[in-house]
Specification:
By secondary structure, the protein is of the alpha/beta class. The protein contains ten helices and eight strands. The protein has a single domain, classed as Alpha/Beta hydrolase fold, catalytic domain (Rossmann fold, 3-Layer(aba) Sandwich), CATH 3.40.50. It has an eight-stranded mixed beta sheet, with helices on both faces.
Length: 278
């Protein structure tokens, strides 16, 4: 298997005096190397770019893709759409500076897991959206459009999961999505939920997506992923759906050699169809 070199703590933008950083897992192959930004999960309030480095990021990079694992601002200190601004700033940085690391920057991919999958899908489905573009980083002349998305077990429809009727609001705890969406009236939260739902941003021009979900996920039901895939299919976008039998949410089964190989192969094939890995 291909060896991988790690470049840690690369600053892609600064906000409020804080450096936003990424780690680059670069396979030791002849360039240009396909570039894929990875966005971790953690309910938008937890997690770090180093999560799953040994079990997921290094093995994926060994399949011939450069994995740029991105830190983003966490809730509740930062609420939507700050996280989308961060992801798009990281995309722009990669397009501007990737060549220095032998990256192929004409086409860039996104790979997100759980909460990170929601962020990558929303970022990838909203090119040129001024409200979501943000003004972070020094590479604002670069495009934040991406050409492929791998979506692992992430929520896509906050309208059904993040809203409550008055009775439900009294009897049930706030949904986890409220950490991301912040405070507001019921109507304000509902509006934010619609705005932040990737399923509502689907168009025929969506980049090719790979959706991977476990059929025993009790945190984000597989029906959410199936509805996302169906919406993409109906509008004419390219979507590939993989159901992992017996897998719960962020199950160790996702880090199997087969699932990582499928994901890396999809991203590599879409991003650099004319390139081969030696």
């Amino acid at each position: 298997m291909t060896t991988v070199t790690l470049f840690s703590d690369i600053t892609y933008a600064e906000v409020d005096g804080r450096a936003l950083q990424l780690d680059l897992y670069l396979p030791d192959i002849e360039g240009p190397v396909p570039a894929v930004l990875y966005v971790h999960g953690g309910g938008w309030a937890h997690g770090d770019k180093a999560d799953d480095a040994q079990t997921r990021l290094l093995p994926a990079a060994a399949h011939g893709i450069a994995v740029l694992s991105v830190n983003y601002r966490l809730a509740p200190a930062a609420v939507y759409p700050a996280q989308i601004h961060d992801v798009k700033a990281a995309i722009r940085w990669t397009r501007a500076h990737g060549a220095a690391y032998r990256l192929h920057t004409d086409a860039i991919g996104l790979w997100g897991v759980s909460a990170g999958a929601m962020l990558t899908s929303l970022a990838g489905l909203t090119p040129n959206d001024l409200e979501l573009e943000g003004m972070l980083g020094e590479d604002r002349d670069q495009s934040s459009a991406v050409q492929a998305i791998a979506h692992w077990f992430g929520p896509t429809d906050f309208v059904t999961t993040a809203t409550r009727s008055p009775l439900e609001a009294r009897l049930m705890p706030p949904p986890v999505e409220h950490t991301l969406l912040g405070s507001g009236t019921a109507n304000e939260i509902a509006a934010k939920a619609r705005d932040a739902s990737p399923i509502g941003r689907v168009t025929a021009s969506a980049p090719p997506l790979l959706i991977v979900h476990g059929d025993r996920d009790r945190l984000v039901p597989i029906a959410d992923a199936e509805a996302f895939h169906a919406a993409l299919s109906r509008c004419g976008a390219h979507s590939t759906f993989v159901s992992v039998a017996g897998a719960g949410h962020d199950d160790p089964m996702f880090d199997s050699g087969a699932t990582i190989a499928i994901t890396a192969a999809f991203l590599r094939a879409v991003l650099t169809p004319s390139l081969t890995v030696s």
